[in-house]
Design goal:
The chain is globular, with a radius of gyration of 21 Å. Strand 13 (324-325) and strand 14 form a beta hairpin. It has two domains: 5-12 and 258-381, Aspartate Aminotransferase, domain 1 (Alpha-Beta Complex), CATH 3.90.1150; 17-254, Aspartate Aminotransferase, domain 2 (3-Layer(aba) Sandwich). It is an alpha/beta fold. The chain has a seven-stranded mixed β-sheet, sandwiched between helices. Strands 9-10-15-12 form a four-stranded antiparallel β-sheet, with helices on one face. Strands 1-11 form a two-stranded parallel ribbon. Helices cover 41% and strands 15% of the residues.
Length: 386
């Protein structure tokens, strides 16, 4: 069988061989607990701190500002809930957007049950938050603004610097979920002027089950996990050393290679985009035309369902995502596409291609060859024809 054509890098990425290689000893002979005080343990501790430096370097942060977590979801929970409770005396309002990842959205929903008030900003047809709407939403009770750097479904990149400036003017903490941009775009926490930034290892060729939260020095934030004195008392629990070492290596590789990769991936994405638009009628692109992640292409193909296309593509050895989550019992259209103003019917016809560093022109051309035939077949059977 042909090699799988993997175009779902926003869901997860394969672990880089170089990352696997440096992780392996920490599953084996280098098993020491970094909190212990003999040589074996010191080795783990040293590896952990070296990895922290590498992650800090990728973000242009100080290593004391990096806390390792169990995943991107934990980083988001920690940032949103931790900042909310630590600043509760100052106020109880949080501002976020309607298109955040569920790690942020559902943390906010939970905080509403604890007496916090959350404002969910809408977005325009490209998925951009409106800065005027943000300014109007701010009250003297606002303690946190949480807006993602780039959206995982459509790839739209939000105006972080402008949002950060508004937060600064009002003395409000600013968190960003940068899980989709770390390792793909240049990130400088001082230039972006964020207080809290979430990232996840498995979204940029590191392992699953490891993430980090950047916490600007002096930021008030409560911990989620209480126990031992790990991570400078911020996140209790014996550290996931193989994961941390892997995350460090992934960060080191990204810092060196992302610029060249961005150009390569963008070129392939544009080739796919143009190819599909030329060969299929009644398609349109979701997300911003240029303020968009280099590897993300989200399209709606009218009159048919994303799931059907996804399954046929899978049958042809091509892995992509669709805009509706049919894993849940009720077939729910994407909250991102609905927020961007799409009807449920059209949103169900969405497909997300997310490209990565190993994709090739041949793979892209195969998709451009295969998908139009699938669409034709499905449209012939579709009850909602033109
Ligand atoms: C994947 C993702 C997360 C969650 O990260 P995990 O490590 O899988 O928990 C959060 N936010 C965004 C934008 C993501 O794409």
């Amino acid at each position: 069988m042909d090699r799988l054509i993997y175009l779902d890098h926003n869901a997860t990425t394969p672990v880089d061989e170089r990352v696997i290689k440096v992780m392996l000893p920490y599953f084996g002979i280098k098993y020491g607990n970094p909190s212990s005080i003999y040589k074996l343990a010191n080795e783990s501790d040293k590896a952990k701190e070296e990895a922290r430096e590498k992650v800090a370097k990728l973000l242009h942060a100080n290593s004391t500002e990096i806390v390792f977590t169990g995943c991107g979801t934990e980083s988001d929970n920690y940032a949103v809930k931790g900042a909310a409770f630590a600043n509760r005396k100052k106020g109880n309002q949080i501002i976020t957007s309607a298109i955040e990842h569920h790690a942020v959205l559902n943390s906010c929903k939970w905080l509403e049950k604890q007496g916090f008030k959350v404002t969910y900003l809408g977005v325009d047809k490209y998925g951009l938050v409106n800065l005027d709407e943000l300014r109007e939403a701010i009250t003297d009770k606002t303690i946190l603004i949480s807006i993602m750097h780039a959206n995982n479904e459509v790839g739209t990149i939000e105006p972080l610097k402008e949002i950060a400036e508004i937060s600064r003017q009002h003395g409000i903490l600013f968190h960003t979920d940068a899980v989709q941009t770390v390792g793909k775009l240049p990130i400088d926490v001082n230039d972006l002027s964020v207080d809290l930034l979430s990232l996840s290892g498995h979204k940029f060729y590191g392992p699953k089950g490891i993430g980090a939260l950047y916490i600007r020095k002096g930021t008030r934030i409560d911990s989620l996990l209480h126990g031992g004195h790990h991570e400078s008392n911020r996140r209790a629990g014996t550290e996931n050393i193989p994961g941390i070492v892997g995350l460090g290596k992934a960060a080191e590789i990204a810092a060196k290679e992302f610029a060249a990769e961005e150009i390569k991936v963008r070129k392939l994405r544009d080739r796919l985009e143009n190819g599909l638009i030329n060969k299929i009628d009644d398609v349109f692109i979701n997300g911003h035309p240029d303020k968009r992640l280099p590897g993300t292409l989200n399209i709606c193909i009218k009159y048919i369902e994303g799931e059907g296309m996804l399954l046929h593509l899978d049958h042809n050895g091509i892995a992509v995502s669709s805009g509706s989550a049919c894993t849940s019992a009720s077939l729910k259209a994407s909250h991102v596409l609905i927020s961007m103003g799409l009807s449920h019917e059209v949103a169900h016809g969405s497909l997300r291609f997310s490209l990565g560093r190993d994709n090739t022109e041949q793979e892209i051309d195969k998709v451009i060859e295969v998908l139009p035939t699938i669409v034709e077949k499905l449209r012939e059977m579709s009850p909602i024809k033109k």
